[in-house]
Amino acid sequence: MIAAAQAAASWARARRATWTTVPLPRPVTPATVSPIVQPFGEVLDPEPVEIETVVFPTRPVLAPAPPPVQKTRGPANPRVVRGAIAAGVLVPIALAAAYAMRGGFSTMRGRVAAPTSSPTGSAGPKAPTAKTTGVLKVTSTPEGARVVVDGRDRGVTPLSIDDISLGAHLVAIEAKNGSVERSVMVTADSVAQLDEQIFDGWVAVFSPVELVISESGRVLRPDDHNEIMLSPGTHRLRFTNSKLAYDETKSIVIKPGERNAYNVTPPQSSVSVTASQPAEVFLDGAKIGDTPLNAVPATIGTHDLVVKRASGSQKRMAITVTVKPFAVNVDF
Q1: For the chain, what are the domain ranges?
Q2: What number does CATH give the domain 268-330?
Q3: Which residue, among 312, 305, 300, has the nearest Cα to 288 in the 3D structure?
Q4: Global pTM?
Q5: What is the pLDDT of residues 108-156, one digit of tens each?
Q6: Among 268, 322, 320, 331, which Cα is nearest to 296's?
Q7: Topology of the domain covering 133-197
Q8: In sequence order, what are the residues at sequence separation of 6 or more whose Cβ sits closer than 8 angstroms to the Cβ of residue 71?
Q9: Beta bridge mates, 215
């Protein structure tokens, strides 16, 4: 690189030595001399005229610059090396300055440099931590109902809980006139809400046998519409009939302001019939077999039993089938 620079400098100095301020010569067309003709047709020889030739100086022809002499590279001169380094640094700076003066950098205004990765490999900003809790809002009519979440008392309505864990939860809303239970799903991106009206509800009980309905020792009596008014929530109702030896407890959910129906299905029992003579057996008008009859299924309660001989004579009786198996012997 240094040798090329030196050769270029030598060529420039040689060209500069040939520069001149004398203008270039213009081409001159030699004048044509016409012969002189006398009036009588005699042709006279013209006298010779000397034409002075003006010689203008011409630009000397330059010899081509000698090719650079290849020199064997020796140890680098420190001054030359420093000069080359300085030239390599200053030339780009000068070019950049000239470019900036022409407005070359104007198009780069307002641009934001793209973030680059750290050369040391350091980690960038940490990602936001995923939420593990959500918000649950509970309101009730009337207000002041106690809120129990997964068995833990959290306060009274209206209530907002902002530290409840994500997922499904069992929420109980307990008021003076009853309680309700609801399952709610809590998520991170929305607010779970419960709004309950805690009013009384009704239940109508239907049964093929007479029953006494009670709860916690208190007898519940149906109204004129055969309905029992109960507070909202879960109730354990006891159904009993001492004559039939029937005693059963069932859980019934009462919803606020709603009417519910519950059908009591008494358990099955059985009937066994024997007779002194062969006979047919009818229960509530339907034949159930011939004697001897053993453990025929029958519902508990009062039934009409008829035992009829082949001769046509019969015996009719009203029987009460209880939870215990019923058995009878007919003597003709």
Answers
A1: 133-197, 201-263, 268-330
A2: 2.60.40.10
A3: 305
A4: 0.47
A5: 454 544 455 554 555 556 666 788 899 999 999 889 999 999 999 999 9
A6: 268
A7: Immunoglobulin-like (2.60.40)
A8: 3
A9: 218
